[in-house]
Amino acid sequence: MVEKDAMQVSVLASSSSGNTTYIETPNHKVLVDAGMSGKRVQDLMHSIGRDLKDVDSLLVTHEHRDHSSGVGVLARRYGIDVYANQPTWDAMASIIGEVPAEHKHIFEMGSTLSVGDLDIESYGVSHDAAAAQFYQFHHNNRAFAILTDTGYVSDQVRGTIENADAYLVECNHDLEMLRMGKYPWSLKQRILSDTGHLSNEDGASALMSFMGNQTKRVFLGHLSQENNMKELAHLTVASILKEHDYGVGTDFEILDTDPAVADPLFAV
Predict the structure, then answer these.
(1) CA 212, CA 165: separation in Å to the nearest integer?
(2) Domain range annotation of the chain
(3) Measuring CA to CA, which residue among 130, 165, 129, 132 is closest to residue 147?
(4) What is the pLDDT of residues 188-212, one digit of tens each?
(5) Which residues form the Metallo-beta-lactamase domain (predicted)?
């Protein structure tokens, strides 16, 4: 039974090919990113019993197509208010097309947006985009934080998202699969750099630096379909956390995400 006043979340899709996450409170329904077609996002919403016509806000993390390709379509078709910082708006203009002025909003990095019963913190990350920022959602003394698409986790980010109730954290690649894989060396260097992506080991290390007693769910996200496997990411993160005496499976759950299948809604 879901609490009447709960914040609910579904990771609708997460991978290196497309990302979107849904957050709802009693008064607001929000998407983070839309890195796929509008039809695909709607299908994912329907799979959890929700509809895009009820979404009032769409927060964009950065301009890369796996996060932004469906933004313009959703804004135009459903009249959704879109929030991003100015450099991101500028960088994704050619990707998303025209967004009606009344639905276009600036959400500056490092600021907090309050919309009714939901407070949203933005924070910058180290990624090779114009000005990548991610978000932590607060409602009814609960917090859900998203952290993907970053080469490393700064002290400032750790302080911002410390001890949230639930996380979506990047585990983009297995180091050995990436090194031995078919990507050109220049792309491998980009992924491994401080403005690239977190590996499975990096994701585990990051989690240990900010999760706390309140943390009950950890979703592993943004997995590369070329350089990782769901089972490998899960095993690596769980093993590292267990080695450091974290209560995997007792104090909190580690959960997988998928590029094509939405995770069920859960109350944070």
Answers:
(1) 8
(2) 8-261
(3) 132
(4) 999 999 999 999 999 999 999 999 9
(5) 17-173
Task: Count CA atoms closer than 13 A to 28's CA, side-chain side.
Answer: 21
pLDDT average, residue stretch 241-248: 98
One-character DSSP codes across 47-68:
HTT--GGG--EEE---SSHHHH
Q: What strand order describes the sheet that includes 57-59?
A: 104-106, 81-84, 57-59, 29-32, 20-24, 8-13, 266-267
**8-261: CATH superfamily:** Ribonuclease Z/Hydroxyacylglutathione hydrolase-like (3.60.15.10)
Which tokens hold the place of 242?
């267990």
State the residue for tokens 């078919």: 182
**pLDDT tens sequence across 6-59:** 999 999 999 999 999 999 999 999 999 999 999 999 999 999 999 999 999 999
Residues 6+ apart with CB under 8 A from 116: 25, 27, 28
Q: What is the CA radius of gyration of the chain?
A: 17
Instruction: Name the burial class of residue 182, with classes exposed (0-12), middle (13-18) and buried (19+) by CB atoms within 10 angstroms of its CB.
Output: exposed
**Exposed (0-12), middle (13-18) or buried (19+): which is 256, by Cβ within 10 Å?**
middle
The candidate with the shortest Cα–Cα distance to 166, out of 237, 253, 235, is 253
